[in-house]
Amino acid sequence: MFGLWKTAADATQYRVQKTDADWRRLLSGPSYQVLRQEGTERPFTSPLNNEHRQGVFKCAGCAWPVYSSKTKFESGTGWPSFYQPLNKQAVLTHIDTTMFMVRTEVHCANCGGHLGHVFNDGPQPTGLRYCMNGVAMTFQPGAA
Questions:
Q1: Gap between the Cα atoms of 92 and 70, Å rounded
Q2: Which domain range does residue 34 map to?
């Protein structure tokens, strides 16, 4: 839908694959619910929403770098928001028609974990708002 990224439907196989039992052992309950069952955390509950240091946000399932702190902005939505992924290989998207609406869902390109959704109401230079679940990511301070 947004042209820059491959869709999740195009990905026939992710580099990181685990059984459901393995994912359940690896992830916390909330992270499993978001990353593997495409859930959504409650707004304003993630410490990453208020993370303002320089660094890289990574998928909590596989440690794949997905966003730079340089593209993070305050959206007021209650979830960490970015105007673009770290690079073209970071995420995949596909259309989500759940919840009686059409949205574009964002997944980790490495393990397929659900990260959040992307919307057309973000700041320039892209005009996009990647609204991510904090429990689906970790933060590594340092060079972004």
A1: 20
A2: 17-141
With b meaning 16 or more CB within 10 Å and e meaning fewer, what string describes 44-67?
eebebbebeeebbbbbbbbebbbb
Q: What CATH number should be reported for the domain holding residue 107?
A: 2.170.150.20
Instruction: State the pTM of this model.
Output: 0.89
108 given a catalytic annotation: no
pLDDT at 1: 37
At 10, phi and psi to the nearest 5?
Answer: -75, -20
Q: Could you tell me the maximum CA-CA distance found in the chain, to the nearest angstrom?
A: 41
**End-to-end CA separation in angstroms for the chain:** 27
Q: Is the N-terminal amide bond of 30 cis, ω within 30° of 0?
A: no
Active-site residue, selected from the candidate residues 59, 108, 111, 131: 131
